[in-house]
Amino acid sequence: MAVAKRERRDNQFGEWFRQLLMDAEILDYRYPIKGCGVWLPYGYKIRKLVTQLLRDLHDAKGHDEVRFPIMVTETNIRKEASHIKDFENEVFWVTHGGLKPLEIRYALRPTSETAIYPMLKLWVRSHADLPIKLYQIGSVFRCETKTTRPIIRVREVTTFKEAHTSHATLEETEAQIKEATHIYKDFFDACGVPYTISRRPDWDKFPGALYSISFDSIMPDGRTLQSGTVHNLGQNFSKAFDIQYETLQGDHEYIWQTCYGISERGIGSMISVHGDDHGLVLMPLVAPVQVIIIPIPHKESYESIMNTCSKVEEKIRSSGFRVEIDKREEVTPGAKFYHWELRGVPVRIEIGPKDVQKEQVILVRRDTFKKEACKISSLQSRLSELMDQMSAELREKAWRWMKSRIYSVGDLEEANKLLKKRAGIVELPWCGEAECGHKIEEQINATLLGTPVDVEEKVEGKCIVCSKKALSLVRVAVAY
Ligand code: 5CA
Ligand code: ZN
Hints:
By secondary structure, the chain is α+β, with helices and mostly antiparallel strands. Helix content is 36%, strand content 26%. It is built from 15 helices and 23 strands. It has helices at residues 7-11, 13-23, 41-60, 74-77, 81-87, 113-123, 170-191, 236-240, 265-274, 302-318, 333-342, 353-358, 379-403, 412-420, 434-444; strands at residues 27-28, 38-39, 64-65, 71-73, 93-97, 100-108, 132-141, 156-167, 196-199, 211-218, 224-234, 244-246, 252-254, 256-262, 291-295, 323-325, 347-351, 360-365, 371-375, 406-408, 425-430, 447-452, 472-477. The two termini are 36 Å apart. Bound molecules: 5'-O-(N-(L-cysteinyl)-sulfamoyl)adenosine (5CA) and zinc ion (ZN). The site of zinc ion has 7 residues, from loops.
């Protein structure tokens, strides 16, 4: 019986990831523009299930989906000073219409604040119009200066889910930040991806935000990946774009805003966290094929086997599972196993002559390769059980692994040692001063993820740099 080996995934992670995207037919990254890839049919199906999950989660909390233009005028993108300052060297510009230079250039949106907010100015009149909770899923463009990687750091981010909310008060934005954090927890939990949630240090917040909260996950190679962010924008953008509303008392106030984003990087985390040396392992929820039926043909009983396969398929489909039969005649069962394992199909069903006689099938779980026989009469309920078990176990296993890679450390030397060998995340006591924060980053050549917002911890110790009273822990990691 095969076992879920993870040597290649863990020791040659980048290589493994890139190869898997091709082999499992998720994404072809050979497109002749740096940082752009092609979603292949199977990958696109995964993407569709993931975006549907995002839609459901946002819709359930009263968000409305919209679709804004991809181009933003230069005038608008420059309106909020700190925003453009940070994005300036990542913006792709549209400079010509045909042969003629444009009078005002257009930016391809690197994110959509400056596209959406001039329209909010037209829409928001009074307190009765608020809150407004919008989201869209589409492409943004960033001429990333860091190393580009398929799905994880791309220049056309094709699956950018961004939500933008407008409120009457600061308190309401704080409540919205909590709601957004919940939505993202639900999203990553559904995908079985473990995360830490940290408030980014001030110097690393989203350009134009009051503060930023980030979801980070540890990849198999020990580096962290920021897989979602939630920002409180305060009134920075509403002042820049002059978006005011009339209060109950008849005064005029600037609106308060939040925004939060997730991209295909979330799909990248999911692939990385659950995959193994055999290929993808998909959570049933986002698996385009949840059950693959593979006939084990036998000369005399070929027809009865195929009939049983069809009967079983129909039965499974009627209980709502995404199921297929691999009927290819020229391919051996062994090659079919390999094919579907690579694509991460949660459960494989084998049906041979003996199974037909016994009115049973053989079930094989993708994550553990555990085999069992199951009577056709009880197949539906057993499959439901298996899918639930598998989802829960994948999630728990990933969380256990990640938690074992978070270290509480009392001195910089040890932190340095751990991060040098890419052990994961270290947590250090910190006074909160930027100067000490920068010193930590320099001395251990790593990134401050920020202070924990997912755990309430009383910190007793002293700042690891200046020895003054520590106000909080700070998480440090080698980040992607
Ligand atoms: N306007 C805000 C909220 S939507 C914003 O743009 N935030 S962001 O810059 O932090 O991006 C949101 C998320 O998109 C990030 O947390 C990250 O997971 C993902 N992301 C950002 N840049 C890229 C990229 N180049 N490739 C893939 N994913 C990216
Ligand atoms: Zn300090």
